[in-house]
Amino acid sequence: MKNETLMEALVQVKRIGNLQHEILDISQQMAEAVDRDDEVATGMLISMRSEPIEKLRISKYALQTMLDSLKDTEDGERLSALLNGGGTAQDVAEEALTKQVAANARESERILALERILNRKISRDQSIFQ
Q: Residues 6 or more apart from 96 whose CB is under 8 A from it?
């Protein structure tokens, strides 16, 4: 795989990881505000969280656009495998990518678990997670 393609993917995946960490941090603060019944802080944190969520959407779109541009190529298939956790790293750069992808997946699970808790606390009987 071209080194520039791999580095561009790594930059996007790291950006995604940083944004996920920011979202998790704000969500944890929001959970604390909900526990305190602090509606003002909860509202502010919900608003604050929208920016990193939008940036995350943009970063994921950029990564998907890169994959789409490499569609039906050897680099595209290799990158897709690495991003989906189905490939084994063949060099140091690919190893960095696979490690970041795995870390992002773990962070995503933590966010989802916290979102379930927040949804139940905020919406009570009307939770989307039943």
A: 10
Q: Which residue has the tokens 């808790």?
A: 117
pLDDT digits (tens, 9 = 90+) for 115-124: 999 988 888 7
CA distance 44 to 92: 42
CA atoms within 13 A on the CB side of 123: 12
State how far the Cα of 15 lies from the Cα of 109, in Å rounded to an integer: 17
- CA distances to 75, 92, 119, 128 from 84, in Å: 14, 18, 28, 27
Q: Which two tokens stand for residue 92?
A: 């140091």
User: Are residues 1 and 75 in contact, defined by beta-carbon separation less than 8 angstroms?
Assistant: yes
| pTM of the full structure | 0.89
Distance CA(124)–CA(130), nearest Å, equals 10
